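agent> Task received from the user: take the single chain below, predict its 3D structure, and emit structure tokens. No templates, no multimer pairing.
agent> Plan: (1) validate residues, (2) run structure prediction, (3) serialize to tokens, (4) report one or two observations.
agent> Step 1 OK, no nonstandard residues flagged.
tool_call: predict_structure(input=
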Amino acid sequence: MKSLNLFIAIIMLAVSFPAFAAKTVKIKLTGSVKEPIMMTVGTSGRTEVISSLPYVLEVPKNEMPVHLSFVSDNFVYYDINVPKKPVDTTGHVYLLKIDESETARLMTRTAPTVTEFVNTPQKSASKVKGIDVTHGVNKAPLTGSKNEKSFALIISNEEYEYVSKVDNACNDGLALKEYCIRTLGMPGENVMYLSNLSYGKMRKAINDMLSITELLNGEANLLVYYAGHGIPDNKTKGAYLLPVDADGKDTDICFPLDEFYNKLGSANLKQCVVLLDACFSGANRDGDMLVAARGVKIKPKESQPTGNLVVLSATSGDEAAYSHDQESHGLFTYYLLKKLQESEGKASLGELSKYVTEQVALQSRRINGQAQTPTVHISTDLTDKWKSLKLNK
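)
tool_result: status=success, residues=393
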């Protein structure tokens, strides 16, 4: 049976001179670690990845006492509550790392002393509503990467009021959120996941994210993901993102893809990558017509990215973006996640697009009997430089 590994967390107050009440509390984790551990701090959703020890966590004093929980791919951890002040002269609290086979035995051990602050153990991977993050492509590798200047806006439009739903769109977005945090190393607060957005909420989400990234003065990397319906305009052939409160007949209340690209391309960003699991031919994920009265698919006019924008889209021309029902994902998103999983987020955009394009084209013929060919659209400013870019900066 594997032995316990003991981590000691020493709490120290950050005090300046002359001495006055500290504004923060520093919690120092010491010991040894051979794997990345994701730590969740309190109830705010803030996450940090511990890849080596000692590790110093700084918490605002007004948030103390604070609850810390820990997750890795291989071990079970006890949560701990860190008090406002040490309860003994040493100020020690303990985080116990245990092998999962020992969980039952440790649950029956004697109650911990006051210096341990041990709560009930948690499972080795967190549950996210709607998906099982412990199996298959949903299990995002915990890499220990830290990308403090990387952000993600994830929009999953699944439940539409007037047209058919987009099966598995929320599964797609939730799974990608896990990859952004666990694999690509984005802080939890940098990842904005939103579902079932109206026209106004879609505009607000994009504007809110850009208002945050602009504060980094051109040093921010932004990933934007959209799973949902797209729609073409009958007359102009222009492409639109479809909000959940629109039916596709009136594009005045839909989000123009040209405007979407222009907003992102003109933003002051170091890098911007857009992933679109949508089609703009008027078809849904089953290949049927979204607006039944139209009867035929439309080949939409291609929108041209600007600035430093790279777009990887699920389809070409008048194709539909299909589901991979067996895996409860969109076909495009499934192979996107699979490549991120296999490469632990290290694949370049060139490698990612090549893999996704080849696999989706092949599997769509096998699974759906229909063509689906992902495409890459890039700004003319980037030329071939985009191929060496990575999501894991």
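agent> Step 4: summary for the user.
The chain has two domains: 5-121, 136-388.
agent> Done.
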